[in-house]
Amino acid sequence: MKLAGRVAVVTGAGRGIGRALAEALAGEGASVVVSSRTATDLAEVTAAIGGDARAVVADALDRDQARAPVRAALAAFGRLDILVNNVGGRPGDGVDADPWHEHDDLFDRLLTLNLSSAWWTTNAALPAMRERGYGRVINIGSGVADRAGASMAYTAAKHGLVGLTRSLALATGTHGITVNCLCPGWTQTSAIDWDVIGARSGISGAEARDRVTADIAQRRVLDAEELGAVAVLLASDAGAAITGQVWHVDGGWRL
Fold it and tell me: What is the pLDDT of residues 4-54, one digit of tens each?
């Protein structure tokens, strides 16, 4: 029970990595507030966690709604110790912005969802953390947070998230607050459909998965639950000296 008595907010926690992280924090004793856009997903998560878990339906593309989970945690528990900014992905029509078919609106939404939303939520949480002299902010990045490999906007946003992490760590370091970036690699969630991924290259789903795992030192795709242990470390007292760091939990992707 490394997090007993702590209060955590996990955004984008309706499924996949966000849900796994919320369950990991709750499993170590934290009271958890989870958010996403889908109420039915959140109901499943809070039922699985049990205890005093709370759910907030919020669209992270909206500046005010992005801050709602933090407000809910402070209202329910009077404090906030841990913030996991997990919201991210590709909103809209599934078409990536690129230099040949530039789509301004999609580019802006990708930056907002994957970068600005993390700032909005963190900005809402920092005053309460500073007041108590304790805070843990964990930004969920990506394998492309320090290299290319995805759409321009998504890659730029995740690079930006690393810069935000380091800048915040420097600015908050004397207030008992740590800020780190946890970067998953290929992780098996409902968002990954190997048949769809393979179809883009004219190959089968099995071949697509084989191509991916060939770039991973451990030759496997991770389970979302494997990220939980690192999140618990960064969120706990044991992680007090770790700040401004980028943690890749990816089985050794493209070493």
Answer: 999 999 999 999 999 999 999 999 999 999 999 999 999 999 999 998 999
Give the torsion sign (CA, 222, 81, 36, 143).
negative
* Residue 63 resides in a domain: yes
Is 98 a residue whose pLDDT tops 70? no
Residue 84, domain CATH:
3.40.50.720
139 exposure class (CB count in 10 Å sphere: 0-12, 13-18, 19+): buried
Examine residue 184 and state whether it is found in any structural domain, yes or no.
Answer: yes
Mean pLDDT of the chain: 92
pTM value is: 0.94
Instruction: Single out the catalytic residue among 134, 154, 194, 247.
Output: 154
Return phi, psi of residue 178, to 5°.
-115, 150
Domain count of the fold of the chain = 1
Distance CA 64, CA 117 (A): 10
* Domain span including residue 135: 7-192+224-249
Domain assignment present for 199: no
pLDDT at 101 exceeding the cut of 70: no
Residue 221 DSSP class: P
Pairing between β-strand 54-57 and β-strand 82-85 as defined by DSSP bridges: unpaired
Q: What is the DSSP letter of 71?
A: H
Question: What's the CA gap between 148 and 146, in Å, rounded?
Answer: 7
Please say whether the beta carbons of 54 and 27 come within 8 A. no
* Residue 134 bears catalytic tag: no
Rounded-to-integer distance, Cα 22 and Cα 79, Å: 17
Question: Per mean pLDDT, which range of 106-110, 121-125, 133-137 is the poorest?
Answer: 106-110
Q: Give domain status of residue 207, yes or no.
A: no
